[in-house]
Amino acid sequence: MIERKPRQKKVWDLPTRVFHWVLVANVVFSYVTASLGEYELHQVSGLSILILIVFRVFWGLFGGRHARFSSFLRGPAHVIAYCRAVARREPDHGVGHNPLGALSILAMLTILALQASLGLFANDDASFKGPLYHLVDPETSNSITSWHHRVFLFGVVSLVILHLAAILGYAIMHRKNLVRPMVTGWAKSEIQDDQITSSETVPVDHPVDGSPLGASVYLAVSIALVLGTIELLQ
User: Fold this and answer.
1) Please, are residues 63 and 38 in contact by the beta-carbon 8 Å criterion?
2) Cα separation of 19 and 92, whole Å?
């Protein structure tokens, strides 16, 4: 049997990589500004997170091959099979998000969208009020503010820890660097160009790189949707 040597393969397009790191920066910035009581800046980062998540939904539907949800979201059977393979310490030669990682990404997007949305109705028990504070009574806003903090502490922080643990686990178990591809866009893989998983519905010849012009349009639409909706509700 001829042993296949890993080769460099393009995985993440530029819009996906920029989205990832800008989202990370905004989550950190949100934590720092909240800790310092800089709620005006905290609101800016919260709105940015909502815009980024809406953009990721568009990009997950119309972006490059590995960025599309249909390329990495799997059913329960595939997730269970992958977990068993991990337990057997089988090598992972795939590219893009694995079935378990896909669930983590979906959970992260969902929990961040929830937390940022709750922040729209929150207050600091002093002078700052979220842009949609007036839609609820003060008692409800206080309750939402409490949940806003809980979602971060028990949701976002937990998922971030799991995410970092997965990166470390892959580095130890599979000697696979998951950070570098999200910086450079390239990863080592033994998968050939004509190989594709049976659960993936994105055509094998679909370009890995999504259109930068398309990404710009989706970002502009995301900004308009988030800020426009808030403006209509104010």
Assistant:
1) no
2) 25
Q: Determine the pLDDT at residue 176.
A: 79
In three-state secondary structure terms, 63 is coil
Whole-number pLDDT of residue 41: 95
Give the whole-angstrom CA distance, residue 200 versus residue 100.
15
Dist. CA 168–CA 161, nearest whole Å: 11
Nearest Cα to 144, choosing from 158, 126, 123, 128? 123
Q: Which two tokens stand for residue 97?
A: 């998000």
Which residue would you say has higher pLDDT here, 226 or 126? 226
Secondary element (H or E) of residue 141: helix 138-150
pLDDT of residue 196: 43
User: How far is residue 186's CA from residue 10's CA, in Å, rounded to a whole number?
Assistant: 4
CATH architecture of 11-233: Up-down Bundle (1.20)
Residues contacting 183, CB < 8 A, separation 6+: 17
Q: At what angle do helices 138-150 and 99-119 cross, to 10 degrees?
A: 150
Asked if 64 and 218 count as a contact pair (C-beta separation under 8 A), the reply is no
Q: How far apart are CA 105 and CA 214, in angstroms?
A: 22
